[in-house]
Amino acid sequence: MARPITLFTGQWADLPFEEMCKLASGWGYDGLEIACWGDHLDPWQAAEDDSYVKAKLDLLEKYGLKVYAISNHLKGQAVCDDPIDQRHKDILSSRIWGDGDPEGVRQRAAEEMKMTARAAKNLGVDVVVGFTGSSIWKYVAMFPPATAEMVAAGYRDFADRWNPILDVFDECGVKFAHEVHPSEIAYDYWTTVATMEAIGHREAFGLNWDPSHFVWQDLDPVGFLWDFKDRIYHVDCKDAKRQVGNGRNGRLGSHLPWADPRRGWDFVSTGHGDVPWEQCFRMLNTIGYTGPISIEWEDAGMDRLLGAPEALEFVRRLAFDAPEAAFDAAFSTSD
Amino acid sequence: MARPITLFTGQWADLPFEEMCKLASGWGYDGLEIACWGDHLDPWQAAEDDSYVKAKLDLLEKYGLKVYAISNHLKGQAVCDDPIDQRHKDILSSRIWGDGDPEGVRQRAAEEMKMTARAAKNLGVDVVVGFTGSSIWKYVAMFPPATAEMVAAGYRDFADRWNPILDVFDECGVKFAHEVHPSEIAYDYWTTVATMEAIGHREAFGLNWDPSHFVWQDLDPVGFLWDFKDRIYHVDCKDAKRQVGNGRNGRLGSHLPWADPRRGWDFVSTGHGDVPWEQCFRMLNTIGYTGPISIEWEDAGMDRLLGAPEALEFVRRLAFDAPEAAFDAAFSTSD
Amino acid sequence: MARPITLFTGQWADLPFEEMCKLASGWGYDGLEIACWGDHLDPWQAAEDDSYVKAKLDLLEKYGLKVYAISNHLKGQAVCDDPIDQRHKDILSSRIWGDGDPEGVRQRAAEEMKMTARAAKNLGVDVVVGFTGSSIWKYVAMFPPATAEMVAAGYRDFADRWNPILDVFDECGVKFAHEVHPSEIAYDYWTTVATMEAIGHREAFGLNWDPSHFVWQDLDPVGFLWDFKDRIYHVDCKDAKRQVGNGRNGRLGSHLPWADPRRGWDFVSTGHGDVPWEQCFRMLNTIGYTGPISIEWEDAGMDRLLGAPEALEFVRRLAFDAPEAAFDAAFSTSD
Amino acid sequence: MARPITLFTGQWADLPFEEMCKLASGWGYDGLEIACWGDHLDPWQAAEDDSYVKAKLDLLEKYGLKVYAISNHLKGQAVCDDPIDQRHKDILSSRIWGDGDPEGVRQRAAEEMKMTARAAKNLGVDVVVGFTGSSIWKYVAMFPPATAEMVAAGYRDFADRWNPILDVFDECGVKFAHEVHPSEIAYDYWTTVATMEAIGHREAFGLNWDPSHFVWQDLDPVGFLWDFKDRIYHVDCKDAKRQVGNGRNGRLGSHLPWADPRRGWDFVSTGHGDVPWEQCFRMLNTIGYTGPISIEWEDAGMDRLLGAPEALEFVRRLAFDAPEAAFDAAFSTSD
Amino acid sequence: MARPITLFTGQWADLPFEEMCKLASGWGYDGLEIACWGDHLDPWQAAEDDSYVKAKLDLLEKYGLKVYAISNHLKGQAVCDDPIDQRHKDILSSRIWGDGDPEGVRQRAAEEMKMTARAAKNLGVDVVVGFTGSSIWKYVAMFPPATAEMVAAGYRDFADRWNPILDVFDECGVKFAHEVHPSEIAYDYWTTVATMEAIGHREAFGLNWDPSHFVWQDLDPVGFLWDFKDRIYHVDCKDAKRQVGNGRNGRLGSHLPWADPRRGWDFVSTGHGDVPWEQCFRMLNTIGYTGPISIEWEDAGMDRLLGAPEALEFVRRLAFDAPEAAFDAAFSTSD
Amino acid sequence: MARPITLFTGQWADLPFEEMCKLASGWGYDGLEIACWGDHLDPWQAAEDDSYVKAKLDLLEKYGLKVYAISNHLKGQAVCDDPIDQRHKDILSSRIWGDGDPEGVRQRAAEEMKMTARAAKNLGVDVVVGFTGSSIWKYVAMFPPATAEMVAAGYRDFADRWNPILDVFDECGVKFAHEVHPSEIAYDYWTTVATMEAIGHREAFGLNWDPSHFVWQDLDPVGFLWDFKDRIYHVDCKDAKRQVGNGRNGRLGSHLPWADPRRGWDFVSTGHGDVPWEQCFRMLNTIGYTGPISIEWEDAGMDRLLGAPEALEFVRRLAFDAPEAAFDAAFSTSD
Hints:
By secondary structure, chain A is an alpha/beta fold.
């Protein structure tokens, strides 16, 4: 049986949840990865109010959709970030932002992440997808010099802030799937290694593998699946296109907005970029990943109503199952 | 006559200035690009005390060295940076750091940059090399989302803080050469374009071209010289090696220290990296750059006493002058 | 609303114009870029005879087709070319070829280009697509040596011959879109820069951007659109495939005919080659190009009746409009 | 008229022949390349029993299928191989394996190849596809050192064993098409040159061109067609994907099974790999190859029932015929 | 202090040992990696006769040479190989070859490997370099099909044959350094992983890292050092040049002799090939490898008397030590 | 004994011949490839005047120089060229240019080529290096369309004009070595194939292999040596650097002068470009080329007095002889 394909609702949170369900269902998606913002899912209510949960599940059922994971990138981001500034205010609810005092914001965000684990449990979902934030991302240029001790302190800060959250995840029997992503504590291969060490490889903490962030950093998304095969808890399909090679577009994006062709890379609709999708899906078969493939649709140069169904069709065609028998079995002789 | 080759003293500021002079002279350098830190050059004294200036110049003369430019990267960095934190404290003098209040640090740093222009004038030097800092570098990952207006505000902040400094440069007949570098307002091609626009292309503000930052960002250092040919005020030779290609080392460096082979790129001794030096030097001939080539020696995996003379030899061999006549002139007939 | 897609009739001029209309309409094209040869369009008649124009427009209307541009590559080629030889005779009408005296041919061709501007005006079309020819293309190998003065004379010859033609274009309110192409005055990036300078950047003279000629010369068709964004007057979609890489096929084509796989590159049906179409169409959106995309179908290894509808489908799928809002708008909070 | 597309039955020999016919016919294949194993074709019976032949042909006709070639890779392999071991036993019938004495196995295999020529003749087919085996493949690593004389002896052994077989082919008016493939006497370009020389370029011996073995060896399958154009007797379409580039997957495959993503390359469904199919098909048009294109479907990571019809559709779209006239004929003038 | 550079005597065993010493000493080598063939070193005598050992050590001392490792590739090769044939006879002494019965050859070779451990101990050397041989190398093409069980049996055969040898190594306090190399049990990355597993990662068994075999297999020799950093017991510097890229030269070498430019790769003098030497040496510094760098000189297209001293000079220039302090220490302020 | 290295005097013909001898001798060159222009060599005098020849040879002997080949590119160019124009006038003597009538120029140039054969014979030299010119080079862009017949006529014109010249070469026992070069009848791989066919592969006509023209056309200079191994009569070492890759510099050079960094490629001093010199020299050893290696020094961005000795040192280091014995001979056992 083919793997379920879901749509992440994060980029559609301006639409009412039911409209989102209607669209996704109409295009043929098997389910949703529901974002904990807009009116799509309030983790506090879902953690505390059974009728709220039931209403959500009923709505999904009405549209023939499943939910395998919920996502709370925006609040997770605030747990470790430093500085906390206007950018965070723009994406946090007033409940979390409060008076904007950085440490208060971080602690309220951490509380919401615990609530999100409880919400997941109540929804019958065993994975929460999200970001961790990072207090050391700001050192990425390594100038002014950041010492090894400053970097180490960042990983400790992450562990200190997330271990209590993960304790709640363990209580709920839910896992957290961090999306490896610039601006997070783990943003590439070796930072993922260091992050896993910082948290003692505890099972509650795994990865949401999204290859779009790999290709422009020159990382191999396929080998990454192999190396972290016991920590791949969720898969987000976003694509990215390298646009370097003319000598003027740089890897770091030049502070230019999405869809500006002078950026050195950009997010594009799944199948329009440089991710080697088929090799990725084959590796997911090999490592025995059994969860959904969720399309996180982001392309500032294309209409999402055009892109989302096209992306589904693209993924369905390539995310085929492995066969039962090896092809050279047919050569065997048993006369 | 061959172009002078100088040594930047920034990475040697732990040595007394005279020892630096002795070493550079012994290796055969033509001069120094003197750093405004350690005991190499105090811009306040140089701006205000003629005897201090004379002593420096006498010392240079004793060792047969010239000075074509002085550098003040560390204080320039603090003019626009945000946040201002421990990293800045580690590289600033107590005179600039003071009580560490960010806005105070920025303003004191700006004052020192004005002093540096005056120091340059007194030394008979017409170029100050340095950094600008940036209030928007922290947005480089573009998540949490930074709006176009936030980015525009960063360029305006740069202009507001540097225009008064550049007024002093104009008074002194000295030019500022900004090193295009991650963590600065201009860190690649298109940010350099935007920076020049922000400051109205005023002549006092130009560039210190250092190709090491270009190669790992996939930028073409040769074409950059052509496009900004009227603003190339100084040349720093640092080299960088891309170490991606194994699927695990990433472009962003993984917060790993210099010389760790898991970084996706690293600074290396001039001639050991990916900069197309000969093409660069040929382009410098073409655009009519007449200043020095200054070796900024940085390689955390090599002993600097081994590297500095080797780099000089490397550059001397490739930075040859253009010839007088075209080679096909010999085909002409005048029988 | 989606951008109109037209078919250039130049490679179909052996068919009667009405048959061409029928075919294009049947395949679903939105319009035609009409060639001024065969019976497709006689610019002299169209310039002087209103009934001729009306008949053409009626025919287009009958087939539901629009016309946004007309093309006269073959006569434009003769305006500057040197030598004028059998190849020109083969593609020129006897009216232009006359007795074949080179200077006479050039002048009659220039007259026809003026007529073509008038024909465009009468047809309600504001762009004429074409070639310029070049008196210096023959120097491309630079051996026997061509002096800088010889090259400069070629650009002057171009300006001298085309300025009077462009005066007529200005009178008619029509623009000329030169196709950057080997054998023309502007055949790559830097020759386009020089050509624009030669003609004082006058607005009547712009470009027909056809990326097929870029990819085998190692030019970036996307960056070209950005750099000449105010002079992109028309877009022709032709594709080309590089066939080098076996050590024997050379970039210059070895005088081999089209469709010979030993050529180092070849024209192929749109979507079968190396043009990065999607990136190109996205850039056209970015620079605000509002004209048609015209498919110039050339593939000597494929049947045109198979290729023309396939190319239309290919372009329709990728030449999508830009969306209204940025995708990260959905992250905003307004609780 | 379009070129026939057939399906090679070798990887389907576990299915009864009629079921194979039914499947292939249902998917739209034009014919079969019938394997001489399983119950698909017994060359001994086909050589000696007319009713057996008639029954096969009737069955094909019932399903609207043609046969252009038959294949006997497994027995051909045993003709020259050394050592002969368990791997051979697993793929040979007991008639050929007998007591397993190596020389006996080789001679019985050679007899079967003669029978296969006769079978082909009786079926009205003029090409037998297969392998030759090789006594020197085991020297491929060149350590322990293999002398030039040892290698030369291998080519002589091949000629000695195959010339008598080819004599029978000549008698039957049938040609043998060897598949260039690792583990065979000819496995790349220069070994094919040497093989042809060993056999005196006799016409009975030609090639079954299968590009899947070329791409991972860095060979150009297109140029190969040109260079051996008079010896291309059959075409098998198998695809292969290079999976190197992460520094850990090696060209030699690491003894890993098919479909393991750690292999440096793998066979994949036609159109999913690195073969430049369109360029290949265009070259087949150019060299005047008039035979079938046979899909040899092998992909251990995909279900064959999904892959075989998809591969057919892929090939049909790209294996188009060459056109009648050159496109620039339309530029000619005959007013 | 700089790392010692030694010369491997295997390719010079036609010369008397003393002449070898004289040459190496004259060129400036620090020592020898002595081959156990020719008259260079007889492991049986060295294991059993103290005066033989003393004579060797005296000779080395006379020429100012050290020995850090001895090598016995040729006998190690025979321990697991299958088939055993003329190639083995050509490189084995008659003591080991005996009557040529394969199993007898393997066992006598195993005995010599034990003796080599004892010889090493007596010479005061703690590393023996060599090959293992492999019973499954012959399956490298995977056709005729080799089952997973056949492959697994090969690793078990290796463990069964080498564990008793390694027991003797443990007794002697000597380690075995296997050279990862085609035709051996471990010939690339994943076979090295499997080999280590087969032998339970026992400490007696480690690696002789020779990057020449990596580059043509598309393996990253630098990352390999990191991943196996606790098992790098010796370093051999051989270089290899990829000669593919013309579409005709293949990765597998076409059975062509060394120095034939039609081979897809070849061994070349250190520094003339594709090994990224400087990156390798930097990684050796990083992982703390403290042993010698031994030049294994092989280049069939160059005179060894020219090449050996040139290679030494090349390696000396690049195999520099890591420095004491980081370069950015000079930025620190302590005013 | 090492291969002789000579200097081509063509780019030095503005200097008196004796000064040229002095320079070349001083730098250590073994001989000269003497150009038939300037005062270096007058082929008419050398053909007819023994004392002139003796004086030249005496001068060479005085400076310890040999001559292996003489060159007459400039006159050879005029034999087939069309059009003949100012560029030819600039490089031809008045004896050949005469009244400038194209056909007369061609015939007088042909006469001089015959004289050059006679001059070579008198000098004791058996190779004349040069160009052929081409009447079809002007068709290189293939637009306006050039028919296959027009191209064929060009090869016939070449054969018609050169066969009588080659008859004289045969009489003199001298060979003509054509330099494959854009603007000539043979300018790449396939045009060389066609050229050889046009002239019936007659032995008098061979090649002067100069790899600088290969690299920017993406041709493999090493494979070319193999394929034309029986027609490599002379070797000229010129180097070229590709300067494409920034999206703006094009393969065709943009009519820009030499040394302009915006050109897509340029001639550079031997060893500063993209020619794989060592692989080339190894192939020359393999094919048994026994002639000189002649440095044709062209680099418009470097002083020739600096470049010529540097190029000699570069070539001497890499153009080493092949060794006597294979390296693995040392593995053999003969105990």
